[in-house]
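Worked example 2:
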Amino acid sequence: MMNKCLVLLSGGLDSATCLAIAVDNGFKPYALSFDYGQRHKVELEKAKALAKRYNATHFIFPLSLNIIGGSALTDMSIDVPDVPLEKIGEGVPITYVPARNTIFLSIAAGFCEVNDIEHIFIGVNALDYSGYPDCRPEFIKAMEKAITLGTKYSDMGKSFKIHTPLIDLKKSEIIKLGISLGVDYSLTNSCYNPDESGNPCGKCDSCKLRLKGFKEAGFKDPLKYPEGIEL
């Protein structure tokens, strides 16, 4: 019997690569996405397509983090900033969603507890990223311990393993790895502020890091960007 895992699948480049890695490592994948009150639903449609491609049982969890606000991703009154590439990662940006990965991993633990899953894959990255505190290795280690202690797994002699295969990779390295595994990056969305057709803006942190990664990796991003955006 194949070992089961749960992949936190946002529909972005990193989570798509994580899903491919999990499958390549022989796991039977379940995928969990969150409809958390984000600015757009494009990423959820991408997540559905990715789950279908990898034959992953897919669940979308409704969660209203927009009630908390405090982030340009959940509060429409806050503009998504256009930060110079060289300034990305300096401090915690306004696109950080308060405690998002803490909440996501806690819900994932409950899902796994019910479905007898011990392995969780999450596409956090601590190199080419926007500076989010919930992407740090020490946070992941602490959450791994916390969700084990906070569930019946600790009484059963079981423990959670949070896999972060991308955490020490540059974006270009992630893209190269994904392409080597056959990831179709046209099925992903990384943009914080896509247009009505779901096309990326090319100006937000995530778009800039993605474009930089594709350029350094020597590949062309398959997504359609506005005219004037350097690809």
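The radius of gyration is 17 Å. Strands lie at 4-8, 28-35, 57-62, 119-121, 161-163.
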